[in-house]
Structures are given as C-alpha cells and as structure tokens.
Design brief:
By secondary structure, the protein is α/β, with parallel strands linked by helices. It folds into three domains: 4-161, P-loop containing nucleotide triphosphate hydrolases (Rossmann fold, 3-Layer(aba) Sandwich); 178-350, P-loop containing nucleotide triphosphate hydrolases (Rossmann fold, 3-Layer(aba) Sandwich), CATH 3.40.50; 356-434, K homology (KH) domain (GMP Synthetase, Chain A, domain 3, 2-Layer Sandwich). Helix content is 34%, strand content 21%. It contains 13 helices and 17 strands. The strands form four sheets. It has a six-stranded mixed beta sheet with strand order 2-3-1-4-5-6, sandwiched between helices.
Length: 463
Amino acid sequence: MQPVIALVGRPNVGKSTLFNRLTRSRDALVANLPGLTRDRQYGLGRLGERSCLIIDTGGLTGEEHVLDEAMARQTLRAVDEADLVLLLVDGRAGMTAADEQIAQRLRQLGKPLLLVVNKTDGIDSESACAEFHALGLGEPQPIAASHGRGMRQLTESVLARLPAEEPEATETPGEVGIKVAVVGRPNVGKSTLINRILGEERLVAFDQPGTTRDAVAVPFERDGVHYTLVDTAGLRRRGKVIETVEKFSVVKTLQAIERTHVVILVLDARQGVADQDAALLGLVLDSGRAVVVAINKWDGLTPAERDEVKRVFDYRLGFLDFADIHFISALHGSGVGKLFASVDRAYASTTIDCKASQLTEILQQAVQQHAPPLVNGRRIKLRYAHQGGRNPPIVVIHGNQTDSVPGSYRRYLANTYRKALQLTGTPVRIEFRAGKNPFEGRKNPLTARQQAHRKRLLRHVKK
C-alpha cells in the first residue's frame, strides 16, 4: 500500500503550497474533492522513486475549544489515516502559542512526526529553526515550499521515517486475474452492480449511503477469464461522515485504485455529473489506471431526461472521449453484460507490449505531421522511442532539448500513440530522455573541422 502523509499546522504556514509541490500540481485540482470535505485535500505524490498519498488539512488556530473541534472533525481523521505527519510552522513568524498547543496534541496521538519550518527563503535558516527545538519534535527541517528550497533534504527525511517498502508481489493474496475497482460516490449503486455481475448477494446492498466500510476483494470468473472485483467505500461529503468506522474510506478507495488494472466509475444518471465525480475521475487518470464509465439508474428516465444526461456528460467529461461509456441499470441488469467487453479491451490496452521500432515509427510520423516548436531558435529533436512500462503504457522518447517540450506537445504525442495503437480506456504517459552531450564539461569544444585544421597546423609546425 502507498504510505500516507498528512500536512498539519496553523493557517497560512504553507501547507497547500507544499501539497501542490509534492503532488506536482499548481492548483491541486486533481487532488481536490469538492463537497467531500471543505478543508481536506487528497493527492497522489512521489518522493524520489516512491509514490504516496498526501493529505492537506485545514489550518488549526491553537485555541482550545477550536482546536478540539477541528482535531475531532478533520485533522484527527487525517492523522489517523497517516503513516507520517508533517507539522508545518512559519519560520518568518517564529514559534507561537498555537504551534506549541498543536505540537502537544500531536505528540499525544503517538504518530511519527516531522517538524518542517517553512518560509526560510531570504533568511538564515539555522536561526529560524533554532527556537522550534523547544517543541521537542526533533531536528526541524527548513524549506521554502514556494521556491522548492530544501525539498531534496525534506524528501530524504520523509523517506527515512516511512515504513519500509515491501517487495511488489505478482499477485496480491486473494486477488487473481484482471483486477477491477468499482468506484463512485455513495449510493450510486456500486455494490448492487457487483451483486448483479456475480449473480448473488455477495455484498450487502442497502438503499443508504455508506453501507460499504472498506475495500472488499471478490474473485470472479466469467467466460473462462479470472477477475477480482474490488468494491470500495463511497466518497462522501464531510458533513455526512458521522460514524468513526467510515474515516478510512477515502484513503482505502485511493489505495484500491492504485493496485488495480481497470476502474469502473459508476455515476448516477438521476444526479448528473457532480464535482466529486470529476475529481475522482481525475485521481483515477492521475494514477494511470484504465477506466470504463457506467452511468447507472438509466431505467425509468424519459427520452428528454436521457438526452440531458448525455449533454451534461459530454460537457463535464468531454476529455474522456477515449473511454467506453455504458448506460446501465444495476438493479434490473440492463446493459451490465456489455461492461466486461470494455473491461477486457481496457485491460489489453493498459498492458500492451510494443516494439521500439513500432513506437519510433509512430513518433517519426507524428513529428512529420506536427513538428515540435523552436526553442531559442533551435528545433527540438525527437529521435527514437521505446516502451518504459505498462499499466499505464509508458512511452520513453529520446532526443535533444527534451526539457523544453511544452505540455501541449506532450498531450499531442500521447493522443497520437493512443490512436495509432488503438488503445481504449487507458491514459498514455510520455517520458522524455535527453541525449548526453559528449562535450559536456569541456571548455570550448572543437568541431571536427576545427580539429582537422588543428592537426594540419601541428604537422606544419613540426616540419
């Protein structure tokens, strides 16, 4: 499972800025789940070679009555979910009474802690950290999240405190074949859909949000193909999460997505496409997982209502044109049988194997049709490509000035590969590698013509 890191501290100490940097997003759009919680954000991050889940929490004032309420309703849940808590403080403002009270509460919870002193740019970091030793949380880690200063040292400190990474197994115990996660908001019919697929009441399904408390793996065979269906706890609004048993639902859902091949995103036709649906889909694609969309509760809608649902879907999720969409009724079974043809196609697409010659040929055709832009008067050269991974498919492209390839051209290449390889339901990741300059580190390297001329001059001098 991916480790979970929670960011905690007073308002305006830079938690969201650090969150955006760790998740490599300018505005945390893919990690923000509007309506799920007003103050907590979940995102996928990477520390070195290790992926992780990052939780950004709302600011704590440190006042006793406010602190208790906030810790109980929001931050305490994030801390409970976390393997490591980063307590952020403001190096420019110095230590405050609120910092002391928050640190005291966190120590009582017994979670691994790392003290991070932010906003140390332009000031002496050692002096800024000195007074925070009094919090008794070990050596403070100075950073400037807005500028990226100290991030390498922070990454090393965080990795040293996380649980050891277990070797990746070929199959998770109890999970075989194609792993499929069924995700969506509460009460959209996820458990009912799985029961319909299995043909039995394997999962409890009530007409009440939040029935499923955890991710449940169900082995299943269909037409000789082995699958594992994973039903996940519904993602819901913070104001409706009352029972303590539901506090792990978001993390469990995101972790379930991470370990699967294909995600079936279930939407409610009667409720339309909510912000939570779009944000959850963003997390699925950011994880690199293939996706099939099932719009449930299609039965009973009038033709006009169905047209409106399709219009809203096209408007809100138009970027999902590469995925199969099914209009189903999990309760009555209509359209459910066709889902697995799409699951199979998505699985075949996300686990595809391609030869380097094929990927290079597609690259050359793409460059010929639409060349990369000029950078300082020089053309970006993309020479050859090979496959760098599966689930999702990764295409590694080698060339010169690859650091200057704009995001729009990266998306163009990803779409080109998806169409050329006839991939369905899966995102394609493009990675660039720059060729090493043989003259790097040498002063005034000579061209071949200059070297030949130099040799002629030396021969002439010797004569």
